[in-house]
Structure formats: C-alpha cells, structure tokens
Amino acid sequence: MVAVFVLLATVFKLPMGISLALSALAGSLAGGEGIALRHLVEGAFGFFDIILIIASAMIFMKVLQESGILDSLVAAILRAFYKNKILLLLTVMLLIMFPGMITGSSLAAVLSTGPLIAPVLIKLGLPRLKAAAFIAVGAILGMIAPPVNILVMIMGGGVDMPYVGLTLPLLIITVPPAVIIALWLGTKDLRIVSREEMQFLLPASLREKYGFRLYLPLLVVLVLMVLQNFRIGPIPDLGLPAIFFVGSLTGLFCGRRFNFFKATQKAMEEAMPILSILAGVGMFVQVMTLTGGRGWAVMTFLALPPALLYLSIAVSMPLFGGVSAFGSASVLGVPFLLALIEKNALITSSALSAIVGIGDLMPPAAMAARFSAQVVGEKNFFRVLRHCMIPAFLILAMGIGVLLLAPLLDKVI
Amino acid sequence: MKTKHIIAGSLLLALTLAVGFFSGREFLSMRQDDEIFPSSGLTAKKMLSDYFPALKDTAGDTEVFIFDSAAKGGNLLIVGGTHPNEPAGTMTAILLAETIRAAQGKAVIIPWANASGFTHSDPQEGSPQRFFLETPAGRRWFRLGSRVTNPVHQWPDPTIYVNPMGQKLAGIEARNLNRAYPGKATGYLTEKVAFAVMALIQKEGIELGIDLHESAPEYPVINAIVFHENASELAAIAQMELQAEGFEFRLEASPPNLRGLTHREWGDAAGIKAVLLETPNASHGRLKGRPTISLIVDGKDKYYEQAARLGRLFVPYGPDGIPLKLRVARHLAGVRAILASFNELEPDKAIELADMPSPADVQAKGLGPFLK
C-alpha cells in the first residue's frame, strides 16, 4: 500500500487524496478482500466530522476576509500591542492557543485565530514562514493545554481514567514550551515600531464605519465554542461546523457587502485538497486494519525491547499522528499508556498527548502546518515545517522528559 | 473544454451514485434485526419505550424479555449489547432469553441495550458486519455493531461531552451508553436510552443488575467483576464461588469519580446492587490482526499471542485464543455465581433461574446446541 501510494504521489504526481484512495484499493485487492467497497466508503467517512469542520471554518475565514473584518481586527490588535515585543509575543501565543484550549483541536485554533494573528506578526517584521510556524506550534500547544485535551480524553477512555486532575500536568508540559517558543521564534525578527510607523502599517479598518458590529462574528464563534462545553440550559449543542456557519452568516451583516456564494465557492476550492486527503487517509487506515496491517504496525512498536520503549513512543506516535493525531492517541496512545502503567497515568497521559500532538505537523495530513501555511499564503507547507522543527523537538523533549521524570513529578505535584 | 468538464463531471457523478448504491445496500443491511426465539418461560415481551414513551419509534427502542415466576422473590436485570461490538455480552443475554425459566422471582433481559449501535460498524476498525453460529435449526447470524450509537441517529457529537453526572469526556462518548447513565429525558438519544433503563429498573422493582461486557486483552479491567460498593460483599462471595469452579475473576471496585457507568449510576441513582462483567475479546482490541468472523468466534490472533509473550496483556493468550464459547461460558458462570451470592445474602428476595445452560457444557459444546 505504501509503495503504491509513493508511486502514485511522486512518479505519477496524482493528488495526495486520490493517491491514498487508490493505494487503499490496491491494499484491499492485494490483501484478498477484493474491491472492499463498504470498507472504502466506511473509512472515507471516518473523518467526516473533521471534514465538515474544515469546510465550514474555511468559509468562515473567507467571510472574515471578504467583509473587511479581518483587516479591521488586525488593526485593532496592532494598536493595542505594538509597543512591547515580549508582551505582544506572549499575548499572541495565548490568543492562538485559546481556541485549541477550549476545543481540544489545533485545527480550530489555526483556522479561527490564525488569520488574525498572521498579518499582525508579518506586519511587525516576522518572516511569513516563521509566522506560519508560530501559528502551527501555538495551535498544537493549545490543543494540549488545559482545560480541554481531547487526546488525553481518548487515551483516558481506553483505560477508564476520568478526566480529572490534569490541569497541573498539562500546564507543566505546555507553559514552558509556549513561552520559550514564542520568544525564540519572535524576538529576533519582530520590530518595535513608533506610533507613526504603526499607523502606517495599519490595514484599512472599517471600525469607524461599522463600530463594534465588526467583532460580532468572531465573538459569536468564541462564545458558542465556550458555551457548548457547558451544555447550559436552552443553548443548543451546535457542534463546530454549525458554529463556524453561524459565524459566517453573522459576518454577512457586520462588514462591507460581498458575494457570499462566490466566497463559499472559493473557500471550498481551497479546502478541497485537504478534504480529499482526509477521506483518503480514512480509506487507507480502514484497509490497513482490514488486512491486518495496523495490528502488525502496533505490535512492531510494542515489541521493541523495553530500553527502546521511549524511542518507540517518540517515533511512532508523531508518525501515526501524521495520519490523525486522534487516531494515534487511540491506536498507539492506549497501549503505550498501559505499557507505562506503573507510573502516574495523569502525568504519563499528559506527556503522551504532547508527543502525539506533534503529529499535526507530520505529513501526509500535517493539519496544523498545512493550514497555517495557507493562512500566510504559502503553497508548500514543507517550507513552514522547516521552522517548526526546533519547537517540535522541544515539545517532544518535554514530553519524553516528563515521562522519564514521572515518578519524581508524582511526588512533587 | 466545457463539454470535457461536463463529461468528466457526469462520469464522476455516475461513479459516486454507483458506489453509494452498492455500499448503501450493505450499510442498510445492518438495520435488519437479529432474530430471537425466547424460551417457553417467557411471560411478557415489552419494548424499552413502554417504560419511557418518548423512545417509541426511535432507533433507541429495543426489546425487553421478562421471565416472571409469580413466586415471591427478587427481581434481576441482565443487560447485553450496551456495547454492540462486545458479542459475548449480547450472546449471553440471547442464550439466557432462549433457555431460561424463572423458578423464583423475576428476570428481565435486554439483549440489545444500545439498539442503534447494532445498525453500523466502527469506521477504521474493518470489522465484519455479522458472525454466524451453527444451531440445531441451521445457521444463524448475529450482528456485530459499534461501541457507540449510530451517528445517523445521533449527530453531531459535541466537542466535549458533559454527561448527565457532569463528567467531561471526549465528544464521541456522547454516543456511549455506558457513559450516559442515569440518562436524561430531554438529552441525546443515548441518554434517553439510559433514562429508559433507569425507568425500567424502577418500574420492575429491580434489586440486582448485571451488565455484560467484553474488553480488549490489553486492558487491565478484564476477566473481572466490577462492582458498586453496595455490592462488594456479593461480588466477593461470587468470586470465591467462581474460583472453586475454576474460573479466575478479578474484583474491581467501581471508581466513585468515574461517572455515567452502569456499575456506578445503577447503584447510586437506583440503589440496586450493580455489577458489570468483563471477558477478553481480541476482536475489538487495538493489537488485533485481520478482524475476521473467525476472530470473533474462535478468538485466535497471532499478534495477541505475541503481545502475551511480551507481557503486554492482562490475560493469558495462547495459540488456542479465547473463543466466544469460553467468553459466554465465563459470563454464564458469573451470572450464576452472582445469583447464588445474592440469594445467600438476601434469602427473602431469592431469584432462581431454571434451565440455564451450564458453563461447562457451553464451553465444551459451543453456543449453537443451546440456541434455537
């Protein structure tokens, strides 16, 4: 399957999604399952919810751009923070992390606050690719940070560990890297500008014309995201796709007028490659499981000698995360958590979630890197990945370090 | 150029429709219910919606089989299919419904507790849709469903699921019946099912509840009796009895801070003695090889064998695997021992089930000969 995929994607230059789907079909035939139509379709629907989130978030991003809301928001952030570099970097890191912290999804973070933050950083001198790396890594840290870490929830579900008492371990794992990475990526290139220069850098703001109304779409999205976590009274549980859609519709009435249908079409055109990759990845994983390939892969990693357990965790979890971080947490995270059962599961699951989170930077899906590249207008996300390497290694080192020091941390916290 | 696009688009549309048609037929076949042939001891057949009418005509409604002796005694609830991908639980409930007669007290059996979960498979697990067993009347099929409610019936999942007891869980758990107790009358479909089971417990005067499950061999809570603290003595006596019979069972206390599960909420909210039984099932584990029908029925898997050799499992797993007949036999032995223990502790509320197949016979002959 892997060979067919590489052949189709590199020699025949077929789109990634099509290559994945065809290699899944080849795997099904080679595995003696014939054309396993039901499995191919079932697998393709494995990431259906994420596909809807991406599609709706892309429409939301386009609405913010077309209505002029994005420019106005960028202008507001610049006005507030242009004076202090460190404060700006830390605030921006927190802003990027926030949607990930409340939804447990790096993708939600990249797609909701990424488009706001990227222009600010770029205008203040951060190179485009570094800005994208800042957003991608910040989004992943947000996904790992408390209060909501879905990766830990998935692993905890596999060992009946309640999602309680995780705030401190997750803060220990995320706060130091967040501060270090924000300063490391930004301090060198970010400029402190005078008030006059800041005024010059400001994009055209519609604030005076539309007032507070401009911020409504983002506010609606953020409020609905927070509310859905609490199931408060009559507030319906919309789910992220519907929340982004409500935000998009709100945007229609909050800024300058634009053609909504054309904007939607454009957004879907841009989203289509990643949507097809996700459907293809789903087929690939399902056929891998169907033919026994998944079991073989999991056992290969688990069969490594105990001394290599940590190496196997450091390599396999991010690698599988390149298919799906959530899938990696379920398929590999649970067996690894059980392999470390003698240690405090709250600490080990937190550390494993940091390691698996890096998977959102790994090809083929590389969700965080791919979309942050898109946010800064970069077509080749591998160029963004180059700047993510050191932050990713830092997060990985933090995760492995916490795993190794778990008994000590257990006594301290 | 435009004509080319129209032709390409039409071909793609035709291909999509063909794929949708043929795969759709396979998906829809899961909506055909398994058949059950209750024993002559059946005294009433109800629907879960009889206890909570809002469930009527929904995918959550399911059959309830009642075996009432009319002789004074206690009332027992046996639930299978809370997780439709754990076939030993469902098969034990079906086997009991097709064989038993209540000699004292009353037994209420729900074989497919999460009926919606039986109408689909878990994406990316590659599971077969059904498995087959030879019976005296011929070959019978049984569905292997998903751990959770069908998203066609309950969708979308929230990002974070806050269950009726306030526990925060991953969004998909909103469709997990064993996280939804004590249920919610106005909640998700799965919560309504849990609510209906709680209503049944109240209306039928249930005093002892047994929830039949399976778990992956790499999972620590396995070959186990998980008990609510109000059933600790009952579970301990049952364990001793099982050990005497040659069945090793672990005792696991229900964690008080793990909310929404049967062994916690049946005990807390309804005050009944609540226990959950687990047997090892390779077909829904993460280390499994090919997820075939044979893996479900015969339970042999080379990767689990390897994992056992490496000390990664919590149960012995040899070349003979852990077949369905052994898993069902363990459940039967568990039910029998728990009943005996209950009768010893609560003689005024004794429950006697006659004609229950013996675990040793099921283990030796398989389930088929005991099914209709």
Which tags fit this structure?
heterodimer; A: 413 residues; mainly alpha; 74% helix; globular; B: 372 residues; alpha/beta; Aminopeptidase; 8-stranded mixed β-sheet; two-stranded antiparallel sheet; 9 helices; 33% helix
Write the layout of secondary structure elements.
The complex is a heterodimer of chains A (413) and B (372).
Chain A: H1 2-11, H2 16-30, H3 37-44, H4 48-66, H5 69-81, H6 85-103, H7 106-123, H8 128-144, H9 150-159, H10 167-186, H11 195-201, H12 207-210, H13 216-228, H14 240-251, H15 260-290, H16 293-302, H17 309-321, H18 325-339, H19 345-357, H20 367-375, H21 381-404, H22 406-412
Chain B: H1 2-29, E1 44-47, E2 63-68, E3 75-79, H2 87-99, E4 101-104, E5 106-110, E6 130-135, E7 138-143, E8 160-162, E9 168-170, H3 189-203, E10 208-215, E11 224-227, H4 232-245, E12 250-253, H5 262-270, E13 273-280, H6 293-297, H7 302-309, H8 324-345, E14 352-354, H9 359-365
Parallel strand pairs in B: 3-5, 3-10, 10-13, 11-12
Antiparallel strand pairs in B: 1-2, 2-5, 4-14, 6-7, 8-9, 11-13
Helix pairs in contact in B: 2-8, 4-8, 8-9
Q: How would you characterize the overall build of this protein?
A:
- The complex is a heterodimer of chains A (413) and B (372).
- Chain A has one domain (46-412).
- In chain A, 74% of the residues lie in helices and 0% in strands.
- Chain A has 22 helices and no strands.
- In chain A, helix 6 (85-103) packs across helix 8 (128-144), helix 7 (106-123) packs antiparallel against helix 8 (128-144) and helix 13 (216-228) packs antiparallel against helix 14 (240-251).
- Chain B has 372 residues and is α/β, with parallel strands linked by helices.
- Chain B has one domain (41-370): Aminopeptidase (3-Layer(aba) Sandwich).
- Helix content of chain B is 33%, strand content 19%.
- Chain B has helices at residues 2-29, 87-99, 189-203, 232-245, 262-270, 293-297, 302-309, 324-345, 359-365, and strands at residues 44-47, 63-68, 75-79, 101-104, 106-110, 130-135, 138-143, 160-162, 168-170, 208-215, 224-227, 250-253, 273-280, 352-354.
- In chain B, helix 4 (232-245) links the parallel strand 11 (224-227) and strand 12 (250-253).
- In chain B, helix 8 runs antiparallel to helix 9.
- The longest helix of chain B is centred in the N-terminal third of the chain and has 28 residues, at 2-29.
- Chain B is globular.
- The model of chain B has no long low-confidence stretch (mean pLDDT 95).
- The chains are: A mainly alpha (413), B alpha/beta (372).
- Chains A and B meet through helix 3, helix 9, helix 14, helix 15 and helix 16 of A and helix 1, strand 9 and helix 7 of B.
